[in-house]
Amino acid sequence: RLVVALQSRLFVFSFPQRPTKLFEFDTRDNPKGVFWGPGGCFGAQGHPNSCPPPGIVDLCPSLERALLVFPGHKCGSLQLVDLGSAKPGTSSAPVTINAHQSEVGCAALSPTGTMVASASRRGTLIRLFCTQSRARLLELRRGTDPATLYCLAFSPDCSFLCAVSDKGTGHVFALRDTRLNRRSALARVGKVGPVLGPYVESQWSLASFTVPAEAPGVCAFGR
Q: How many domains does one find in the chain?
């Protein structure tokens, strides 16, 4: 499959033998659109090399679950489509996950297609959902200051998740043994009220590393 994400539409083609359009989906407006021309990449302002992060779309590499994720029509929502069960040329309603209150900023599918991770454009929280039940599994905190997340990546065995932002810091979270993740010192206090509750209950990264600030980056795990 070959996936092409435009500003408000997404196309899926067969690949590699004579690519043929199989599906077409409308998406929420994606202001991260860029184009290539003489002199390199041009961002929304038309300046060379002013590329924003890539469009929000991910395709699961699993042969058993050919899942595709992209922004839903509702603010903060994700749409999931199983390309393996969907029939080309037919209109099937994608599964919708209401992930955030603000616009989605980044999303990634696990290698097995069982989980999807997403962050809003605020970039403070990363939420993990089950692709079958749509239930929220974990809430991970990158930080407290707003940030642009460039990349979310699962480890091959889905034990860890990595995130890179424009703050010049990468974060690694544990997904299976969540005891490895750090927690706020206020978590030991117990009930702290509805205001601090979400802050205290979220989990912080078990490890972090430094990258050049404001430089768009891609993170990945080796086997």
A: 1
